[in-house]
Amino acid sequence: MSSATRVPCPTCKKAVVYSTKNPFRPFCSERCKLIDLGEWASEGHRIAGKPAVDEMMSGDLEGLGSPEE
Ligand SMILES: [Zn+2]
Question: Does residue 24 register a pLDDT over 70?
Fold first, then answer.
């Protein structure tokens, strides 16, 4: 009755048994887990460090700030 649920490892796409016996679920191994977390963290830093919204905001403010020209 206990059919093992298998999920693809997010890092290497290998089928992983998703159970409480697997401490790295849904990853197949600690290595894949660390790789995925590392990519996630670097992505977060990239987004957080890029002031894309501020640039857009200041651009709008400049356009609106000089109506007499
Ligand atoms: Zn993997």
Answer: yes
